[in-house]
Amino acid sequence: MTDDDEDGLMWPPNLLKNIQNVSEQATRQQQEALQQLLLGTGGGTPDLGDISDQMGAMTQMATFKTRIQSGGRISVPDAEREALDIQEGDIVQTVVVPVKRNREED
What is the DSSP letter of 3? Predict the structure, then answer.
């Protein structure tokens, strides 16, 4: 029997400490990568650049209901225009999902 066996330890104490340090470092790196991904923060990680840009763009979105006006026009409410800092003449992308139809089907 060795001294390690008498103490009930199978591995040297410094090995366990090293494993803990590596685990903590990996956890920190995962947290930083997730933060960069979700918040679009730079961090010198080129692999996340495109995704970060897209996630950042998603924070500049609004969802609202509006009526179709004459000529197929829709209007963006004042609060959304202000929140998104869009003005007359700006180009925006629109996704239209019918919610309710106010017409009689023949």
Answer: H
> What residues contact residue 74 under an 8 Å CB cut-off, 6+ apart?
66, 67, 68, 94, 96
pLDDT digits (tens, 9 = 90+) for 16-74: 788 878 888 888 888 787 777 776 655 554 555 565 565 555 567 788 888 999 999 99
Domain ranges of the chain: 1-82
Q: Which of 35, 37, 57 is nearest to 47 (CA)?
A: 37
Model pTM score: 0.42
Taking a C-beta distance cutoff of 8 angstroms, is the pair 40, 53 a contact?
yes
